[in-house]
Amino acid sequence: MVKKYDWYPADDVKTPFNRHTPRAPKIRKSIAPGQVLILLSGRFRGKRVVFLKQLKSGLLCVTGPYKINGVPVKRVNQVYTMTTSAKVDIKGVKLDDISDETFKKEHAKKTRTHKFFSSEAPAKKLTDQRKKLQKEVDTVLMKNINDDMMKKYLNARFTLTNHQAPHAMKF
Fold it and tell me: Which domains, and CATH codes, for the chain?
């Protein structure tokens, strides 16, 4: 005997896909606010920077300070950093203003004219908000870094020579 069903769907009911929403990655145990990191790639490779905080996207917010070694407040993936044992006091630095939206770039309007061989590149302008943020962070950090050796350490570039293995070193 076959069971009778009272209701049959007219069409196949489409169920939405379960989409994966990525979460921010966990921060390494060795990284803490104020920790000195070494950047391993990009324009500032080899520079030592001070870690400020982890952003919502999982990227690390770091700064040089700009007055010491020329590295501005920027976002960095923690994969491209190496942790050192040096630490800087970041008490008094206002980190509430820093978020992923702080680092968003304004999109330039696209033009249809083809200037392939043109030597005029669009000038990149730094917003007043970013300049103000850099100044606020740097003034507090410079007051906290009162040791000349720490200033020289942050200013020194990290390099390796032949037969030096970074995994065998203590920073």
Answer: 29-98+128-155 (2.30.30.30)
